[in-house]
Amino acid sequence: MTLVIAVDGPAASGKGTIAARLARTYGLPHLDTGLLYRAVGVKVLGDGHSLDDAEAAAAAAWSLVPAGLTEDERLTTGEAGEAASRVAGHPAVRAALLELQQAFAGQPGGAVLDGRDIGTVIAPDAAAKLFVTATPEVRATRRWKQLTARGIDISFDAMLADIRRRDERDAGRGAAPMVQAKDAVLLDTTDMGIEAAFDAARRIVETARARHGL
Known about the structure:
It catalyses: dCMP + ATP = dCDP + ADP; CMP + ATP = CDP + ADP. This is Cytidylate kinase. GO terms for molecular function: kinase activity. InterPro entries: Cytidylate_kin, Cytidylate_kinase_dom, P-loop_NTPase. By secondary structure, this protein is of the alpha/beta class. The chain has a 5-stranded parallel beta sheet, with helices on both faces. The longest helix is centred in the C-terminal third of the chain and has 19 residues. It starts with a strand and ends with a helix. 43% of the residues are buried.
């Protein structure tokens, strides 16, 4: 069994930072699956289509080239996050990206993936599963600080409303809703700094490795 680490959770919970550090620690490739959906949403809007246009969103997903996504600053905006949450609700989009994500998770040496449905849909047999969360207020504060530091003008109240709206949409969608896998370990980072959160995550992974003999 290879070491596949599934890190799920809502927006701004810290899952991306934790997943990236786990990947570096264990020498594994890392895929932020949220970037895939952000890229789809940005392309749909760039092509002049509505985010509710399932056909256009699916076409964008099928044409997606993952290389270079981490360098695309357009994908870090609040608009891109909102677009990602909306196109992710289209079953055809999730189907188009499923094979790509599962192929990444199936690499011989293992991998780390973070998103909303890694432990439930993409890699249900992952050796280690974490569900990272925090209160909406704390998550909104984190994201608000990130965006304002980059010069993006957004009020905290608007950020909190966006976080809550995305939570409701991600958890309530019919296609692969965001839920904690039954065998995932809950990691609440509300009262944790990044070092404490990462240390807790690493201990969860080490427990999983020992259980599976990895």
